[in-house]
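Moderator note: this is an archived Q&A kept for reference. The question asked for a predicted structure of one protein chain; the sequence and the answer are reproduced below.
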Amino acid sequence: MITRRVMLQAALLFTAGSASAAPARDAAQYTGPDRTQLLEAGARREGKVVFYSGMIENQALRPIAQAFHQKYPFIAVESWRGDSRALVQKALTERRAGHTIGDVLESTGGAEALIKAGAVAAFRSPATADYAAKYIDPNGFWAVSRLDYFGLAYNTRQVPTAEVPKSYDDLLNPKWRGGIAWRADSEVGAPLFIAGIIRQFGRQRGEAYLQKLAGQRIVNYAGSARALVDRVGAGEYKIALEIYAHHPLISKAKGAPLDTVMLDPVPSALSTIQLAKDAPHPNAAMLLIDFVLSREGQEVLRKADYFSANPRVQTSAMLQKIIPGLNGMQEIVFTPALMFDSRDEANALFNRFFRQ
């Protein structure tokens, strides 16, 4: 039972918005046995949490927000969806204005930029107890909310199975000229593909490969990853590169003429969840972070066909074919730091070879 004394502690230690309130990092760092009670007490006073995420809205973001609200009906969830670049820009604009709105930031590729900008606070969550160390930032600025594998999407009506590219070199076949697209405005689109080529082949051989690939007249698509896959399914493009490999399989299961091929080595990335510095609702934010990382929250994402880093959550049979380790393929793991460090070189090479 929460005593009157505990409630007073919660108000003094964990509630933002009063002169005597402790800063948000106290709610983020506290690990005492009464942590959950104190967070809940503070969250009741806050009343809501604002969640920025790159998850597909209807597929995952809305279900995870609804599941959280069902568990904590006294916390209203306001969500906003955008890709990593838009999310980082939004969070940094708020910080420069001195008016932070987003409490919890979930992205693929945005974590390191937010850390370097001083826009996020370190946190501790008991929900990560079962996670491998590689899925938790040693400084506490992020934990992995989902795993991402990238591959090739193709239209099964336009590309016979026997002709589907099975390797990076197969992409250079003249038959694909003008029929390939990728996302040009995303950290996990063209730049990630280019960074993977450089890490795989080295600078000299990698640049030679990219020069040949540029001759294929790849379409620089401006839009979401999901929308690009839908365009392939509609026959606008035969092939899309560096897409979230599970997207075509989800559509295929619903009858769309789509499928996925994984090229070896497979690029992968870590989607991360972070706590905004000076989050206006720090207690509710920590409860949301705990929930997303917990087995309960990760099961919600598994049902949405997302990949979990939580070892207690199993991947659906439909998606196991794209996990490199289960299929004898090598993997290039882009951690938040590696993705950030690769960004400038990848963007420069994109501008050199593919900017149209």
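Archived answer notes: The CA atoms of residues 201 and 209 lie 9 Å apart.
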